[in-house]
Design brief:
The structure is a homodimer. Chain A is mainly α and about 120 residues long. Chain A is about 60% helix and about 10% strand. In chain A, strand 2 and strand 3 form a beta hairpin. In chain A, helix 1 packs antiparallel against helix 4 (about 40-55). The radius of gyration of chain A is 15 Å and the shape is elongated. The first copy, chain A, binds a DNA duplex (30 and 30 nucleotides) through helix 4.
DNA sequence: GCCTTATTCAACTCAATGGTTAAGTTACGC
DNA sequence: GCGTAACTTAACCATTGAGTTGAATAAGGC
């Protein structure tokens, strides 16, 4: 159980993985498509998807030869509850969230992949 | 900015550090007192406090020869907003949070330190 | 059946983490 | 001002993590 939190938080601690989650928010995607905007090997993305899956943040279903990735936002529930215990953060400020997406979405995935952050 | 999230999530990914945060929820504490319930060296705890400070999750103020640690829950705001973007997790279920505390508070810090999780 | 596409696996490198012990530093207390 | 309490720093070690390349596997398409 605390291990769940370990895995979820560790998974979220990587900007590439957060960017992937944000992408999947829009729609389910095949591994190759997830990898496309990033400046790193497919194998690397495959690994990232592995840790996201292990953390329960996404699920992967193989249909034919393509493996579809699907967001599983419920995995965030425990982590969210844990965090909320430290204070009341005003219920979803969508504007703030959009700002994050602007920074972390595929448009700039290149930047994420190259420099990590600034 | 995305680096902030990196640091916050990475800091939260360790059970010892989460336990420390939970302890500080009750009251400000000196480094030695923070370390007391754990089965690891003071130096190790000092490092953990360093990463929590770097992430902005706590602040440390030296008064005399003791350094007081204080929770800074605001640092969780951005992370919380980010997570909330993935779904509406019902506003603070205090019971659920208490369950986490039971597992991660100092009473069982020994267990946390020894086995990490089960 | 064969080429190709989609994805993973294996082996490796390099850097970062989490821990250790031992040696500093700084501030009380007497 | 000396001894000690409260921390931090340094040097080290073992493990993990993020990335690479290259080979393996699996499923289509024709």
């Amino acid at each position: 159980m605390t291990q769940d939190l370990d895995q979820v938080f560790a998974a979220l601690a990587d900007p590439t993985r957060r960017a992937i989650l944000a992408m999947l928010l829009e729609d389910d995607m095949a591994v190759t498509d997830v990898a496309e905007p990033f400046e790193m090997s497919l194998a690397a993305i495959s690994k990232h998807l592995g840790v996201l899956t292990a953390a329960g943040l996404i699920s992967q279903e193989k249909r034919g030869r393509v493996k579809w990735c699907k967001l599983e936002p419920d995995a965030l529930r425990n982590a969210s509850v844990w965090m909320q215990g430290f204070g009341q953060f005003e219920p979803v400020n969508l504007d703030a969230f959009e700002r994050f997406l602007e920074i972390e979405l595929p448009e700039t995935a290149e930047g994420v992949a190259r420099s990590g952050s600034e």
